[in-house]
Amino acid sequence: MKKRSCLLLGLIIVLAACQPKQSKKEPVKISPLAEEVKKEFVRTWDAYKKYAWGHDVLLPLSKSYQDWYEESLHISPIDAYSTMKVMGLDEQAKEVENYVIDFINWDKDLFVKTFEVNIRIMGGLLAMYEYTYDPKILLKAEDFGKRMLKAFDSPTGLPYYWVNLKTGETKGTKINLAEAASYMFELGILSYYTGNPVYYQTAKKANMAIWERRSKLNLVADLIDVETGEWLNDHSHICAGADSYYEYLYKSMLLFGDKDSQKMWDVSIKAINKYVAEEDEKSLWYGRVNMHTAERDCIDPHSGRQFASVVTLYDAFFQSILALDGDLRRAEKTQDTWNNLWNKYGLEPMIYDYKDSEPTYPVYDLNPEIIESAYYLFHITGKQKYYDMAEKYWSDIKKYCRTEIAFSSVEDVRTMKKKDYMPTFFFAETFKYLYLTFTEETGEFNLDNYVFNTEAHPFPKKSFEPEKVKKNLGLE
Ligand code: DMJ
C-alpha cells in the first residue's frame, strides 16, 4: 500500500513537471508617458460609456452624444476597439465584441457615406475579426460588405457617395478621389477572410476606372462623376479628398502584393514628386497643380480664389508612406515642414495656405496624421527627434483639447476656443499612434509586421498567405 502511494505521488510529481508552464504573461513595463496616454484613453472611453453609450460620438463639452444619421451606427466603439487591443485593455475590448455580436444589426433604412463607413466600420470589424477569429464577427463584416457593394453599381464601377444599408438605393454622383477609390485594402481583407473575390474585384474595378482616366502626365484630379466618368475639375494633389487613394495604392501592394497596385503607385509617386511637390531650402509642401499642364493654377470654385498652395492637415500622413517606401529624404523634410506649422500655433489648422502663411480654415479636429508620421519616422529612423515631436503633440493636445471628461476639437487654433465634438478617429488613430510611439522601445508591437488601414486598424502581414491571397482575391 505504501509502495503504491509512493508510486502515485511520484507520478503526480512527474506529470506536474511535464505540464506546460502556466505562462502568466508579465505585463510589459511601459514608460510614464505611455501610461498616461493609456490612462487618458480609459478616462475618455469611460466618458463615452457614461454619456454616449450606444451612439456614434461623444460630445465632450455638453456631456452628451450625437449620431451621424437618424440611427446610430455605433462608430465610436467599433473604431476604439483595436486601440484597446493594442493597449492591452482586454476587458473593455471584450465588452465591445459582445456588443457588436449581440446588438448590432445592419439592416437599417439609412443612407450612409460609402467612404466613411468603409474605413471606420468595415476596417474596425475586420480588425476585430483578426483579433478574435470569431465567425460571428466575420458574419457582421460580411453582411456589411454585401450592403456596401451596392454602392458600386454604377456605369463606371465607381461608388456613389451614399448607399442605403437596407434598400441598396444609391445617391450622390459627384465624389472626390479618396471617396472614389480607397476600398482595395478593406475589401481585399474581406475577400481574403471570406474566400469571395467579389469584394476585392469590385474595389479594384473602381481603382482601374480612375487609373484609365489619368492624364498624359500620369496625374489624376480630385472630383469625378461616377455615372459619366468625367473629371469635374483638373486639380491634382495628395490633400484631403485625395489622400487615402494614394495611401491604399501603396498599402494594397504591401499587404497583397498586387502587381497592378505596385505599377499604379510607382507611376503615380514619380509624377507627384515631379509635378506636385514644391520644395525650397527650408520646406517641402505637396500643393496642387493642373493634371494636364502641371501649372500651379487651381481656382477654388466656391471662393474664386487661387488655391494651388492650400494644404490640409490630413496631408501629413503622406510622409509615413514616403518613409515606408524608402524615400527618407522627402519624408523627413515633409515632416519637418509640418512640424514647423504645428509649432507655429501649438496645434495645426485644418486648411492652410503656405504661400500666404495663413490658415484658411482654422479648426483642429484631434486629427492624427502628423503623429502617425512621427511614429513611422521614429520606428524607421530611430531618431529621438521624432519621439520628441510626438511628446510635444501630446502635451499640446492635453493643454488645449483636454476637457473635464474627455478631449474636444478646437474651433480656431489661433484662439484655442474649444468645439463640442470628439471624432471617432481620436479613439482609433490619435491615441493609438501616441501610445505606439511611447511604447516603441518595448518591442511589443513591431510596425514592420503590420499594415494599418487609413483609420489605424492594424493587420498583421503574416496573416495573409500569398497563395491564399491570390486565390481569394482573384489575382492572376
Ligand atoms: C481619418 O478618418 C482617416 O485617416 C482618413 O483617411 C482621413 N483622415 C481622418 C482623420 O483625420
Number of helices: 17
* Uncertain parts: none
The rounded distance between the terminal residues' Cα atoms is 72 Å
What hetero molecules are in the model?
Answer: 1-deoxymannojirimycin
Tell how many strands the DSSP assignment holds.
18
Q: Which word captures the global form?
A: globular
Helix content: 40-55%
Q: What's the architecture of the domain at 31-71 and 309-449 in CATH terms? A: Alpha/alpha barrel
Examine the coordinates and then state which fold CATH places here, giving the name of the CATH topology of the domain at 31-71 and 309-449. Glycosyltransferase
- Overall radius of gyration: 24 Å
Q: Hey, roughly how much beta strand do the residues contain?
A: 5-15%
Mean pLDDT: 95
Written account of the structure:
It is a single chain. The chain has 476 residues and is mainly alpha-helical. The chain has a domain of 182 residues: Alpha/alpha barrel (Glycosyltransferase), CATH 1.50.10.10. Helix content is 50%, strand content 11%. The chain has 17 helices and 18 strands. It has a 3-stranded antiparallel beta sheet with strand order 3-4-5. Strands 12-13-14 form a 3-stranded antiparallel beta sheet, with no helix packed on it. It has a two-stranded antiparallel sheet with strand order 1-2. A hairpin with a 4-residue loop joins strand 9 and strand 10. Helix 3 packs parallel to helix 16 and helix 14 runs parallel beside helix 16. It is globular, with a radius of gyration of 24 Å. The chain starts with a helix and ends with a helix.
